[in-house]
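tokens incoming
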């Protein structure tokens, strides 16, 4: 998911350099949304992992 964010930011950078402001703006906004979704999913996984406790001793 974070790879998608990096890809969209690279597309936005290239589009901005070439003068496509609208495409660059859209790519940055999509990258922001995907980043925050990934961040929220990570935090949810972190909370549920902490609630579950340590795994079995090996």
């Amino acid at each position: 998911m974070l790879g998608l964010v990096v890809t969209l930011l690279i597309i936005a950078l290239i589009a901005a350099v070439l003068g496509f402001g609208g495409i660059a703006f859209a790519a940055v906004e999509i990258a922001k949304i995907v980043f925050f979704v990934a961040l929220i999913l990570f935090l949810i996984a972190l909370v549920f992992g902490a609630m579950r406790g340590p795994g079995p001793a090996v």
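note: The chain has two helices and no strands.
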